[in-house]
Amino acid sequence: MDQSTPTKRILIIDDNRQAADVAAELLSLYGYQTAVAYNGAEGLQSANDLAPDVILLDLGMPGMDGFQVAAALRAQPQFADLALVAFTAWGDKGTRQRTQDAGFDQHITKPAGMEEILRAIGTACDMRASFARKIA
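Given the sequence above, the corresponding structure tokens read:
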């Protein structure tokens, strides 16, 4: 990784502890700073505490689902530049449209390989950076 580029902070929000922990561990091997949260409410608190650059967000969680978390994040101005990636087992056309409508930048269907995850993170970050330049 280019040392002149600041390390991106990635928060993984997923009620499947094993999936969240494995994703965090693998992404840390690629030089990312990672943190995990295991439900929507915890994820919102972690987002406020950590100010991540990217959130990988599961959709199907009990209590506060990923769509509700996304809406809460997008309603807060401090998360305007946050790259939001749906990271879910739901890959149907209707769900993909819902994630787009909810403000997600990318949608990954589990199981996904690291190459696909890294590509989605990079694309989501590029999209947010481009959007920020346009409104500046």
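The chain has a mean pLDDT of 91. Try to locate this feature in the token string yourself.
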